[in-house]
Fold this sequence. Notes:
- With 106 residues, the protein is an alpha+beta fold.
- The chain has helices at residues 2-16, 22-36, 71-82; strands at residues 41-53, 56-65, 90-91, 94-95, 97-104.
- The protein has one domain (2-104): 2-Layer Sandwich (Alpha-Beta Plaits), CATH 3.30.70.
Amino acid sequence: MFYLAYPTAKGLAKVLLQTTPDSLFNGVENRLREIRQDPNVAAVDRIHFWQNTYGQCVGTIEVQLRSEADEQATLRFIYQKLEGLTSNAMVDGDRSELTVSIIKLA
């Protein structure tokens, strides 16, 4: 019985603890590295990607921009880089989400 219940319990615990799915982890790191290389980006903080329900991922990220940076262009760049990590497709009537907070340094 334990043999059958363990994988289910482990998967459910990962969802409840809002952990980054193993399938997303390398993709997130690679894309964050690309975002950090943008000359307009001063820092990337508070990164959290997790699975809300099976197949639906949610992500939040805080990006600090240099004072001379174009906010809209950089925001478009960030969304393009992170596109696909949280699926834009409808999953059981709910959309996956990606929230990007922009802080412009003085």
